[in-house]
Amino acid sequence: MINRFCKMPLWECTKTLADVAQGRTSADVVITGAKLVNVCTAEIQENMDVAISCGRIAYVGQADHCIGDETLVIEANGQYIAPGFLDGHIHVESSMMGAGEYARAVIPHGTVGIYWDPHEICNVLGLEGVKVMMDDAARTPLKAMVTTPSCVPAVPGFEDTGSSVGPKEIAESMTWDGVVGLGEMMNFVGVVNGTDHAHGELAETLKADKVITGHYSIPENDRGLNAYVASGVRCCHESTRAEDALAKMRLGQYAQLRYGSAWHDLPELAHAITDTDIDTRFAHLVSDDTHPHTLVEDGHLDHVLRVAVSCGIPPIQAIQMVTLNVATCFRMDNELGSITPGKCADIVFLDGLDTLNVTRTIIDGDVVAEDGAVLFPLGSYGYPAWVTRSMHLKDEITPDSFAVPVPAEAADEDTVTVRTIEIIPGKVGAFETHVDLPVVNGKLESSLAQDVLKTFVFERHHETGTYGVGFTKGFGIQRGAMASTVAHDAHNLLVVGTNDADMALAANTLIQCGGGMVVVADGEVLGLVELPIAGLMDDLGAEQMSKKVHGLEDAWAQIGCAMPSPFMTMALIPLACLPELRLTNRGLVDCTKFEFVDLFV
Amino acid sequence: MINRFCKMPLWECTKTLADVAQGRTSADVVITGAKLVNVCTAEIQENMDVAISCGRIAYVGQADHCIGDETLVIEANGQYIAPGFLDGHIHVESSMMGAGEYARAVIPHGTVGIYWDPHEICNVLGLEGVKVMMDDAARTPLKAMVTTPSCVPAVPGFEDTGSSVGPKEIAESMTWDGVVGLGEMMNFVGVVNGTDHAHGELAETLKADKVITGHYSIPENDRGLNAYVASGVRCCHESTRAEDALAKMRLGQYAQLRYGSAWHDLPELAHAITDTDIDTRFAHLVSDDTHPHTLVEDGHLDHVLRVAVSCGIPPIQAIQMVTLNVATCFRMDNELGSITPGKCADIVFLDGLDTLNVTRTIIDGDVVAEDGAVLFPLGSYGYPAWVTRSMHLKDEITPDSFAVPVPAEAADEDTVTVRTIEIIPGKVGAFETHVDLPVVNGKLESSLAQDVLKTFVFERHHETGTYGVGFTKGFGIQRGAMASTVAHDAHNLLVVGTNDADMALAANTLIQCGGGMVVVADGEVLGLVELPIAGLMDDLGAEQMSKKVHGLEDAWAQIGCAMPSPFMTMALIPLACLPELRLTNRGLVDCTKFEFVDLFV
User: Fold this and answer.
1) Three-class secondary structure of residue B99 per DSSP
2) B291: which residues sit within 8 A by CB, 6+ positions away?
3) Phi and psi for B252 in degrees, rounded to 5?
4) Which residues pair with B114 in a beta bridge?
5) What is the 3-state secondary structure (H, E, C) of A74-100?
6) Are A277 and A312 a contacting pair, CB within 8 Å?
7) Neighboring chain B residues of A284 at a CB cutoff of 8 Å
8) Sequence-ordered list of residues with C-beta below 8 angstroms from that of A196, at least 6 positions apart, any chain
9) DSSP annotation of A139
């Protein structure tokens, strides 16, 4: 596809680039004396210069002849330079920041481009919401390449969202300048079963000659995976076992090895590389979901690279997985992903291949970040008011809203058995577990002894008044309640808690502030992150967001939860495209069979 | 770009493929029990089945569930299967056969697709001639993917051709269904010097989002090569030294390691792989020019693979170089180049990775060749009459036409020094050598003692009456003369010989038969290959053509030349885009400086 993410199309500047390479014209920028990470040949080339003009690389070698009076000379002093990092699968909304602030946060860590799926905002505000985020992103140098959300709702028929997307919307979006593909096709069941809706979206993407990105999250690597790959899905970030990633690569699908704030799949997946001797060109490293705390404390793809190297993946191969391999997946390797002549001049400086600290980021030939800070101006975006009014619940929420009556025939039992969602710390999956809960006055309550919490999901988009009821096991909290409007992917109002009063307080706190994440206990708000933009984001910088999220994590710890980023794990409770059991505003969903199931076994 | 070379677009059959993978619908074809050469991971997978439907791969694994009553089951019996071979740079005309017969010759050797540059016929008959060949090719299953000839004439201003191509023609051709890129940009001087003509052609190709193929034939790997690559040229088959190929790969240009009938560069180039530890994804194996004799006796890419392996390149890597690496270069790896779900079902069977003999070729799911013979019908194409009338010389040619008078001031000298083209057996290059020739009656003659032959190039397209005069060293012949209308790239009438009478006979023999290649001696025709189609090809099968060419080679041997395929080396004498000295119908050209030079030093 034509790359619309470089400063100048190549066809407008081939002559100038040739002039610079030959020394007839001075370069805009020359980098001198670098150790070049050559991702094409997987070598380190010592003492290399790079000359840049028109935002593109004109020459790689010994570039004295490209330097003129006006040329900016950057002395690498023996630092490494690598192609700018590309994240092949990312949701900006997980950072809880707008796209502009997200760019400000990741660019100093070497990220020059993201293939982003803005499906969180799309679930709440539709493609109009996506356009607002694209507009925000366009204020920054980050190459924010959109894959249009394919699964809005995530699993049609199982939840209520603020908007919906189908083949017609996909076809329309493929004509937009910033769209390079289809967002993660989470409806793998629809794909493997051949539904019109799913295949209609695939077809519109293929007709536009763009790339389909995937989400195949079950540990089945035979018929289902083959059907999924045969349908044109080119990459997938949902492997959690090394054998799954290996199976995908063998079938010619790019395996996107994930290391997000809460999904730490990479150490396991790295065995697909380190335990074998395979060609690794079909592997990526992706972050998927990164919260602001991680961006501030650890970084972005630089952090993922460090983890990869610590897992035994050789540094050059790891760097290929965030550069050339990603560009090739999106068939944009003619423009991105390597420090070679003609390509966009997207370059990162690294202090070493062991430390992998990014000291400088160049995008389209402009130095856009140095020593951790961006060098471009970025004011507040000013999200329009309609984007910040997204809490549309029908009924008032009170403690009584959280009553869970048992069926009449069980009212006299001592206990009843309920289907419970058992979370897995650090993973996106959740098990279905059966738990016996005591019946008290014909109703069920949370059981701290069994670490089982009452869980509600209230529809918040169209005042339908619908809600789902279930139980969750595994958070370890001992008091209070949590609520979140970040509740994938419909982003309805999710409430989990130990008692009805705190649950009502948590819910109402978010309704009042326009959405966010909150922890309460004993009638008091312990931690609150307001997310007024669609109930998903705020237009603050990463430092501020991180501080707020830290406060929230502290509040989680205060009430007894020791997990990393527990709010991210909680936010997946409604995500019906992940195994095994999930709760949406319409009820409990068996996500292996895709059918509603009763709370009571 | 959208692939127009598969039986069915993927968007029309994703549902069917999913159905087959899941076992809901039977496959058209199932291959069972194969050793799969997995080019994605560079592994051999034992005992694999492949299910095919709609011309595409639906499933890879254990495919019993895909077999129905109507399914064609092909038992591999432990043979290897690999993706069908793709030749990233090829001129069909070098085979001296029409495109249909060429397809018939190469498909049994595992070739399923060619990226061909029909610049020979284009030089003679223009893009209308190209269309005729495309029409011929379309009768066969071969994926004949055209790169539009970019350099017609090869080096503007230095020769006269039958037609010319510029940016306007390139832009027009990019809208044709069968065109996937720009043919080899031999005018690398124009590219590195920034001429409008060359850069205009590059721009039109880039605007159409297609791939520019290259030809950078000088041993300069610094400023010039950088300028060339920066201008968007994605591959190059003209490396003759390992360091050149390595330099190209390091700059992100695909190095196409060549092994044609007469250009045996691969053994030297293989050192770029075998002496290093580089990632080889930027390497291809290509044939460039293969004559019918080679196709019949040795094969096509299967033969090149065998040579590559004999040079120490591991078989799986070598196979990647004629499959996935080629498809990726042309940004068609989503459709071609691997045996993975969704891709075109282009598959070859190999009896072993040491022998690399192709026993069966499948294209788009159809078995199109088995045990050396094609299984599709192919009659005579019936080239239109205008294509077979291409000998348009102005003046009658007689022995007197070949007189070479010395300048008046040298008429009394014993000898004069002449610039002589010294050929290099097995290479496309030629040196400039200075030779002292005796002056006899104020004229020069060939010198058998010094192995130096009189050489003439007569314009044959537009009756201009122009001709060039020079001398060639190195063929070793002792009597007679040769002539050829295959005389790159203008394909004027080239005559080389020991004496004027035989030279006239050779020339007139070709004028009478509509073009071809001939060897004469002592007033007798010893060998003749008639090539009535544009003076370049005949519509015969490879066996017949091979026999005729064998006869010609025998004739060369009779008059004293022991080189392999000397007629192919001779045919490059006029090719002004190759170093160092060449002779066109306009005169001697210094091909390092691109200027005409005098015969006399």
Assistant:
1) helix
2) B94, B95, B96, B261, B262, B549, B565, B568
3) 80, 15
4) B87, B144
5) EECCCCEEEECEEEEEECHHHHCECHH
6) no
7) none
8) none
9) T
Predicted confidence at residue A579, as pLDDT, reads 85
φ, ψ at A31 (rounded to 5°): -95, 130
Q: What CA–CA distance (Å, rounded) separates B418 from B437?
A: 7
Residue written as token pair 């044959």 = B460
Cα–Cα dist A311/A318, whole Å:
10
User: Quick check: A319 and A80 in contact, CB under 8 A?
Assistant: no
User: Is A62 in Cβ contact with B11 (below 8 Å)?
Assistant: no
Tokens found for residue B246: 């390595």
What per-residue confidence (pLDDT) applies to B155?
81
Q: Is the dihedral of CA A126, A129, A135, A137 positive or negative?
A: negative
Q: By CB neighbour count within 10 A (0-12 exposed, 13-18 middle, 19+ buried), where does A261 fall?
A: buried
Q: Which phi and psi (to 5°) does residue A40 adopt?
A: -75, -45
Single-letter amino acid code for the residue at B292: P
Rounded CA-CA distance A325/A316 in Å is 12
- From the list B21, B224, B252, the residue facing A223 with the nearest CB is B21
The residue behind tokens 């007197």 is: B400
* Mean pLDDT of chain B, nearest integer: 96
Min distance A20 CA to chain B CA atoms (Å): 8
Residue carrying structure tokens 């999710």: A494
Q: Which residues of B touch A231 (CB under 8 A)?
A: 14-15, 17-18, 342
Q: Kindly state the tokens that stand for B486.
A: 């295959």
Q: How far is CA A315 from the centre of its chain?
A: 23
- What is the Rg, in whole angstroms, of the alpha carbon atoms belonging to chain A? 25
Helix (H, G, I), strand (E, B) or coil at B414: coil
User: Which amino acid, one-letter code, is at B584?
Assistant: T
Residues near A548 by Cβ (< 8 Å), separated by ≥ 6? A528, A529, A530, A540
Q: Which 8-state DSSP code applies to residue A264?
A: B
State the maximum Cα–Cα separation within chain A, in Å, rounded to a whole number: 92
Rg of the Cα atoms in chain B: 25
The structure tokens listed for B339 are 């045996």
Question: CB of A342 within 8 A of CB of A78?
Answer: no
- Residue B325 DSSP symbol: H
Q: Confirm or reject contact between A469 and chain B (CB < 8 A).
A: no
What pLDDT is recorded for position B348?
A: 98
Let me know how long chain A is.
601
**Which residue in the set A18, A209, A249 is minimally distant from B41, CB to CB?**
A249
- Select from B593, B227, B185, B191 the least CA-distant residue to A22: B227
Please state, for a pLDDT cut of 70, what percent of chain A lies above it: 100
Residue type, A218: I
Per-residue DSSP letter, B240:
-
- A406: its two tokens: 């048992």
Q: How far is CA B337 from CA B101, B107, B111, B309, B363, in A?
A: 24, 15, 11, 19, 12
Closest Cβ opposite residue B341 in set A65, A226, A249: A226
Query: How far is residue B95's CA from residue B537's CA, in Å, rounded to a whole number?
Result: 8
Cα distance between residue A66 and residue A68, in whole Å:
7
How far apart are alpha carbons A598 and A588 in whole angstroms?
7
Query: Which portions of chain B are predicted below pLDDT 50?
Result: none
The pLDDT tens digits of the residues spanning A119-128 come to: 999 999 999 9
Alpha-carbon torsion A374, A376, A377, A383, what sign?
A: negative
Name the residue type at position A341.
P
ipTM of model: 0.94
By Cβ distance, the residue of A14, A24, A38 closest to B250 is A38
The pLDDT tens digits of the residues spanning A329-388 come to 999 999 999 999 999 999 999 999 999 999 999 999 999 999 999 999 999 999 999 999
**Integer angstrom CA distances of residue A114 from A3, A8, A261, A344, B296:** 13, 19, 17, 15, 51
Q: How many CB atoms lie within 10 A of CB B91?
A: 25
Mutation choice for B interface testing from A15, A59, A249, A317 by most B CBs within 10 A: A15
